[in-house]
Amino acid sequence: MLGKVELLKLLDDRQIPFSCEQHDSVLNMAESGKLNLVLEGARCKNLLLQDKNGRYYLIVTTACKSLDLVALADLLGSKRLSFASPDKLMELLGVLPGSLSPLALVNDEGERVRLIVDYDLHAEPWFLFHPLENNASVSLSKQAFDAFLRTIDHRADWRPLPDRAVA
């Protein structure tokens, strides 16, 4: 499995433009929101979900969205979704909790993880993702993100994802 250094080299070797900034480790969106980054881009929430049939979904949504997992399961044709364990995160994508991003799909050699990106991010020109470790962020343009996915034979399934209703 590739690590951060190898991933950044792959991006460079494949002439996918990016910028990278080192920062303190962050474990969640609340900690990420407190970072003062020079890089620009949408901060994305990344979740690895699984269903009872053994299907895995990497969900990418806006930093502030609280997903309705019941409605999302219905949208994806699943009975029920749950969060994948830290062991599954490492086994499938080679990352620890807090380090997940679509860049980890570089390690999905078995193509077991389906990438679902929230349509709410569609108009964003730049994205911020962790490069397999949570102590750095990479800024990619939408075009560079698409180029990266093509080079690793993955595709993004852009869908409007359901927000949990506030009671």
UniProtKB/TrEMBL annotation:
Question: In its keyword annotation, does this UniProt entry include Aminoacyl-tRNA synthetase?
Answer: yes
| Molecular-function annotations in GO | aminoacyl-tRNA deacylase activity; aminoacyl-tRNA ligase activity
Gene3D superfamilies the UniProt entry points to: YbaK/aminoacyl-tRNA synthetase-associated domain
Which keywords fit this entry according to its UniProt record? Aminoacyl-tRNA synthetase, Ligase
Identify the InterPro entries for this entry: ProX/PRXD1, YbaK/aa-tRNA-synt-asso_dom_sf, YbaK/aa-tRNA-synth-assoc-dom
Task: Please give the Pfam families that the UniProt record associates with this protein.
Answer: tRNA_edit
- The YbaK/aminoacyl-tRNA synthetase-associated domain, residue ranges: 25-145
Describe the family membership recorded for this protein in Swiss-Prot or TrEMBL.
Belongs to the PRORSD1 family.
- Protein name from the UniProt record: Prolyl-tRNA synthetase associated domain-containing protein
